[in-house]
């Protein structure tokens, strides 16, 4: 029995020594590894914005870890993912540009550069749309102000027409009185 326990402990030690990394690597990788696992679980649970933030955190705080390239790539693509409720194209663009400086395959780099071009184009188009929306709101506001001014002028016109009718009525009464007075004066 002791021999079996001894063999078991020895095999664990041999396996552990063969698969283990140095203490320096373990100390360096442990926080990055933990953060990557958290980010992976957030991504798996469709909490995309928080996952992007975690991947960016790994990339910023652990640039020498073995997770750096993966963290940069995932941060870049998750920030602009349609599943992300808080899309941040500028953050995505930043991480994509960082990713192009890393050693990646030529085809992948070309795809990333195309994606960067498209993101920039989308940004330009979004700015144009925002400008049009702002212009439309201003025009709508101007039209509403003009419509109010037209209603005010119509009300003033109506008041003036009413006053004119009243004045015309008064003038007619005065004319009738003048005519009666003239006819009386002529008869005398």
Which characteristics define this entry?
188 residues, mainly alpha, rod-shaped, disordered N terminus
Structure description:
This protein has 188 residues and is mainly alpha-helical. Helices cover 85% and strands 0% of the residues. The chain is built from 6 helices and no strands. It has helices spanning 2-19, 23-44, 48-61, 68-79, 89-100, 106-187. The protein is rod-shaped, with a radius of gyration of 41 Å.
The topology string of helices and strands comes to HHHHHH
Shape summary: rod-shaped
Q: What is the overall number of helices?
A: 6
Main sheet characteristics: none
Short description:
The chain has 188 residues and is an all-alpha fold. It has six helices and no strands.
């Amino acid at each position: 029995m002791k021999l079996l326990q001894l063999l078991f402990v020895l095999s664990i030690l041999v396996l552990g020594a063969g698969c283990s990394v140095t203490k320096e690597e373990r100390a360096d990788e442990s926080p990055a590894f933990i953060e990557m696992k958290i980010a992976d679980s957030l991504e798996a649970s469709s909490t995309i914005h928080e996952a992007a933030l975690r991947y960016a955190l790994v990339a910023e705080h652990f640039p020498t870890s073995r997770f750096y390239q993966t963290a940069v790539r995932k941060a870049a693509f998750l920030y602009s993912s349609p599943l992300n409720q808080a899309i941040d194209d500028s953050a995505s663009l930043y991480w994509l540009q960082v990713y192009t400086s890393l050693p990646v395959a030529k085809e992948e780099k070309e795809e990333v550069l195309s994606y960067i071009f498209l993101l920039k184009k989308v940004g330009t188009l979004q700015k144009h749309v925002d400008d049009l929306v702002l212009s439309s709101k201003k025009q709508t506001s101007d039209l509403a102000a003009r419509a109010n001014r037209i209603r005010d002028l119509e009300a003033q016109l109506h008041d003036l027409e009413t006053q004119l009718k009243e004045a015309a009525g008064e003038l007619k009464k005065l004319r009738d009185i003048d005519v009666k007075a003239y006819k009386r004066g002529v008869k005398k």
